[in-house]
Amino acid sequence: VQRLNTQLEQRVAERTAELETTNQALVAEIGEHARAEELLRESEQRFRLLAEKAQDLIYRVRIVPDFSYEYVSPSSKRILGYAPEEFYADPKLMFELAHPEDAAEVQAIIKGESVSPAPLAFRLIRKDGEAVWLEQSNVAIYDDQGTMVAYEGIARDITERKLSEQALQSANETLTNRARELEQRKQEVEI
């Protein structure tokens, strides 16, 4: 009986040591997991702060299973006159904002049919009725099966640049016409 008792005590001691080692490993793993979660929270907080302070419009659009906005930065209010919550509440809002001359292109972009990291320029109608030119770049997001399920992007207000380009083009056309008129008058005077 004493031998059995000693063997039992030895097995209990061995098992206790194994459990202590396992417990220490679990405590260490829990600590690492907690540190990783804290680092993730800090990273997410830095990203959110960056996105929310950005002058450009930053967004994430889910296209599968249903079209919806997962994130729209607060700059949407300044650029388009609409708060992010308005996009969340009405996923079709962006379709309605398309300038009539750019509607087909905008709809293809919004639906994810024309997702390109190359910048695309188009017009939307702001809440106040004014047209705004945007330059936008998107990146497709795929699931494990290779199906595009979302896209993320950045849109920048380039209205001033477009208006300057149009003014420059108009001035060039005016100067070209004036040069032709002067050339024509010169030829008439020589005759």
Q: Could you characterize what this model shows?
A:
The chain is α+β, with helices and mostly antiparallel strands. The chain is built from 6 helices and 5 strands. The longest helix has 52 residues, at 2-53.
* Form type: rod-shaped
Order of helices and strands: HEEHHHHEEEH
Strand order of the largest sheet: 2-1-5-4-3
Helix-residue proportion: 55-70%
Main pleated sheet: 5 strands, antiparallel
Strand content range: 15-25%
| Class by SSE composition | alpha+beta
State the end-to-end distance: 137 Å
Radius of gyration equals 32 Å
Poorly predicted runs are none
- Report the average pLDDT across residues: 90
Count, helices: 6
Number of strands: 5
List keywords for this structure.
about 190 residues
Question: Summary?
Answer:
This protein has 6 helices and 5 strands, in the order H-E-E-H-H-H-H-E-E-E-H. The chain has helices spanning 2-53, 75-80, 84-89, 93-97, 103-110, 159-190; strands at 57-62, 68-72, 120-125, 131-142, 148-157.
